[in-house]
Amino acid sequence: MPLPPPDPSPGTASGARRLARLHPAALTWLFLCSTGGALAALALPAALGHTVDRLVSGGPVPWSGLLLCAVLTLAETGCDAAAAVTGTTTTARLTASLRTRTAARILAAEPRRALALPTGDLTARLTARTADAASAPVTAAGAVAGVLLPLGALVGLLLIDVWTAAALLLGAPLLVALLRTFTRHTADAGADYQRAQSLIAHRLTEALDGADTIRAARTGAREHRRVLEPLAALADHGRRTWTVYGRAVGRSGLLLPLLMLLVLAVAGLRLAAGAIGVGELVAASRYASLAVGIGALTGALGSLARSRAAARSLDPLLTLAPLPHRGLGPVPDAPGHLELRDVGVEQEGRPLLAGVHLTVPGGTSLAVVGRSGSGKSQLAAVAGRLLDPDAGSVLLDGVPLDAMEPARLRREVAYAFARPALLGATVEDTIAHGPWTASPDAVREAARAARADGFLALLPYGYATPVADAPLSGGERQRLGLARAFAHPGRLLILDDALSSLDTVTEHHVRRALDARAGRCTRIIVAHRLSSAARADRVAWLENGRLRATGRHDELWQDPDYRSVFSTDDGGADNGGTDGSGSDDSGSDNSATHNGGSPRRTADGTAPSLAAAETR
Ligand SMILES: Nc1ncnc2c1ncn2[C@@H]1O[C@H](COP(=O)(O)OP(=O)(O)OP(=O)(O)O)[C@@H](O)[C@H]1O
C-alpha cells in the first residue's frame, strides 16, 4: 500500500509548540501572570531590605517603603492565584482541543492507516496521553517562572554582595547535574509506563469485545491473567518513576538547605565586616531562599518529561494525512455507474484482490459472491473508498473516487454492514446519523423499508429510546444499520453481508425495498445466500481475490464450480433448490431479475462454460 504523502498542514509541528497555538491568548495571559508573580517576588526582598535599613537608621517611619512591600506582596499573591486558575482552565481546554483534533485526524485519514494501532492503544492515546500532553504548555509557563526566580535571586545577591552570590554559585553545578539526571531518568520511566498502560488498555478492549466468547469458553481467569500480565511491568515503571523522584527530592533536600546556610553564613560575615547593612542581610536571606527554590523545578521537569513522551505518542496520529483527493470538479448528475479498473489490494505483500475489472451500470444491482475469504468485503470497501486500492482505480459516474471531495463522496455512497456500529444517543439519532441529518419523516420511512419499524414501536420510548437501553438482537441491529443506509442512500448503496442475520421473510421485504431503488441507485450486495445472487441484475463471483466470472445468476448457475459456492456439505445447494432460482423466497416475486449481458470467458479459462472478460 503506497503511503500517502506527508501532511503539509500546520498539524505536523510537534509538541508544545503545536499546542501553544491552540489557545494563544490564555497561554499569553498565563505567562504574564507567572512572570508578574515572579517579578513581584524578586522585587520584594529589595524593597524590604531598603525599608528595614531606613527603619534601623532611626529616621521617620518609611510609609512609602512599607506600602510598596504591601503592594508587592499583594501583586505576588494575586498573580500566583490568577496563574493557578488560568493554568487549570487552560489545561482543560487544551486537553479538549487536542482530543478533538486527534479524533478529527483519525476520522479524516484513510481507515486502514488510522486504525493500524490496536484499539486499546488508540483509546489510551486519545484519553490519558492527550491529557498528559496538554499539560505541557501550562507546566512550561510555570517552569519559566521557576527559572526566572532563582536567576533573578542570583542577580539580586550579586547586586548586594559578590561574595554572597559566589557562595550560592558554588553549589550551582551540583544542582544542574541533579536536575539533568532527574529529567532523563523520569522521561525514560514515564515512556515505559505509558507503553505498559496502553498494552493493558488494548488487552482489556479485546477481552470486552470477546466477552461472550470468554464466558462460553470459561476462560475468564486465563483472560484476567492475560489482561493484567503487563501490570507487573507497569508497577516496576511506576516504582522507577517514584524512585527517581524520591532520590532527586532527597538529594536536593540535603543540598539546598546546606547551600542556603552557606549563603547566610557568608552574608553574616560580610555584615560583621561592615560590607553590607542589616537590610541587605534581610534581602540576601530572602534571595537565598528564592534561589534554592530551583529545587521545585524537579516536579515541573518531571511533568514536562511525561508530557513530552505523551506528545510523541500522539505525533503519529496528529500527522496522519487526510484522505487525499484531487478535486477534479463536480460530479455529474447520474444514477451511479461504477467502474473498477484493474483493481488490486495487498496487505504486507499478500494480494487480497488482484486485477479486478468490473462495471456496474447506474441504477442496477450487483451481488458479490464467493467463498469465505475470497475478497468480497475488500471489494465492497474499495467500491466506496473505505479503502484505497494499491493498484488500479475506481470511478463513479466517470469520476475517480479519489478525485471526489471526501464529504461529497460520503453523501453519494451509503454502507450497511453485518455488524453495524450504532452511533447516536437515541434510536432516531442512530438512523439519522450520516453525512447530513435525515428528517424525522425520512427516518421513519427508512425504518419501514428496513423492516425495523415493527420492533421499534415496541421499545419503551419508540424512536426516542436511548440506543444503550434498547435490547436488540443481531437481526434488529442489522435492520437499524440498513435503515441508516436507506436514510442516506446517495447514488451507490453497498451492503456488506448486511442481510445475513435477517430471517427469510424480513430479508424478502428488505430486498423488495432495495429493488424499489432500481434506476436511481446502484446497489452492491455482498452475500452468501443464493437468493441474493438470484435476485440481483448481475453477479460478480470472486475466487481467491480474483474475479472468476460476472454474469447473470441463472447463466452462472450452469457452472458446477459456481453452484459449489452455495452448496452445503451434503452437496446440495444452500436453500436454492436445483434450478438456482433462489426459491427460498417466501414472497411471490422470487424470480431473479435478469437484464445483464452474457457472461464471458476468463483469461485463465478456469470456468468451463462461463467467464467474464472483465477478469484478468
Ligand atoms: N485488515 C486485514 N489485514 C490483512 N488481511 C486481511 C484484512 N482484512 C481481510 N484480510 C484478508 O483478506 C482476505 C479477504 O477478506 P474478505 O473479508 O474480503 O473476505 P470475504 O470474502 O468478505 O469473506 P467472508 O465471506 O468470510 O466475509 C481474507 O483472506 C482475509 O484474511
TrEMBL record:
ABC transporter domain: residues covered = 338-569
Q: Which CDD domains match?
A: ABCC_MRP_Like
Chain segments annotated as coiled-coil in the UniProt record: none
Give an example GO molecular function. ATP binding
Q: Where is this region: Disordered?
A: 560-616
Compositional bias (Low complexity) spans? Answer: 581-592
The listed locations are: Cell membrane
Q: Which Pfam families match?
A: ABC_membrane, ABC_tran
Q: Write out the entry's keywords from A to Z.
A: ATP-binding, Membrane, Nucleotide-binding, Transmembrane, Transmembrane helix
Q: Which residues cross the membrane?
A: 27-48, 154-179, 254-278, 284-305
The record's listing under Gene3D superfamilies reads: ABC transporter type 1, transmembrane domain, P-loop containing nucleotide triphosphate hydrolases
Q: Classify the protein's membrane topology as the record does.
A: Multi-pass membrane protein
| Keyword Acyltransferase appears in the UniProt entry | no
Domain called ABC transmembrane type-1: residue spans: 29-306
What protein name applies here?
ABC transporter ATP-binding protein
Taxonomic source organism: Streptomyces sindenensis
